[in-house]
Amino acid sequence: VPSPLLPSFHHHQMLDNLPDEITVEIVKHCAEPRPFAHATIKAPPLQTSITYEALKWSHLSKRHRELMRSIPGLWSWVSSAMHPIFLQECLKLSGGHDLDVEINAEYRGLELASLEMLRAIYPPSSKRWVSLILRINLMVDAPHEDQTQEEAMELVEEFYIHLHRLNVPKLTKLNLVYEV
User: Fold this and answer.
1) What's the CA gap between 180 and 163, in Å, rounded?
2) pLDDT of 4-15, one tens digit each?
3) Dihedral of the CA atoms 20, 21, 25, 27 (nearest 10)?
4) Residue 166, number of CB atoms within 10 A of its CB
5) Residue 77 burial by CB count (10 A; 0-12/13-18/19+): exposed, middle or buried?
6) Diameter of the chain measured on Cα atoms
């Protein structure tokens, strides 16, 4: 007697027999929305994004892998919190599709983490950015806290200068979320 708690071969076959359009809609509905207007300093878990949902489904079978990899819109959300190799794969799989980008940065003394990633990974794709959420944690715990906060704000300015130098013709939404 098969256990109702364990997925059976029959259930796997049912997933394989669904039409592609229905499978893609299921994947989209499994992902949690990533709120732009109400972004908070704490980013939602990466595992709840459409990109990670597509990744999970791509491991079900060869058919699902080919299907997920063939739909650029499923790979159009990227984040600096992703592993760099996975981020590059998402940029490749998204083809020419518009991108929603999240950059999560932390102030660490002399640098703003993720600034290097912005310089190294994102510029080739910046022409496709339509939205950008920039989360910056400027929390400081130093003897000269005022001076350190001032330095952190200078780094944010520097970040904006770098962002301004990027070619972002499609960028229509920019959300800066920071904590001081």
Assistant:
1) 21
2) 544 554 555 677
3) 20
4) 17
5) buried
6) 69
Strands in 14-98 per DSSP E: 77-79
Tokens of 10: 């029959």
178 Cβ contact partners less than 8 Å away, ≥ 6 residues apart: 41, 135, 136, 137, 138, 156
Task: State both tokens at 50.
Answer: 């459409």
Residues 104, 1: Cα–Cα separation, whole Å: 49
Q: Could you tell me whether strands 111-112 and 129-137 are parallel, antiparallel, or unpaired per DSSP bridges?
A: unpaired
pLDDT digits (tens, 9 = 90+) for 96-151: 999 998 887 765 544 555 555 555 556 678 889 999 888 877 665 555 555 566 77
Whether residue 57 contacts residue 68, with contact meaning beta carbons closer than 8 Å, is answered with yes
Tokens at 61, concatenated:
């079978």
C-beta of residue 130 within 8 angstroms of C-beta of residue 98: yes
| pTM for the model | 0.78
Q: What angle do CA 126, 128, 133 make, to 5 degrees?
A: 70
Phi-psi region of 66 (alpha: psi -120 to 50; beta: other; left: phi over 0): alpha
Tokens of 35: 């709120």
**69-107 residue pLDDT tens:** 999 999 999 988 888 889 889 999 999 999 998 887 765
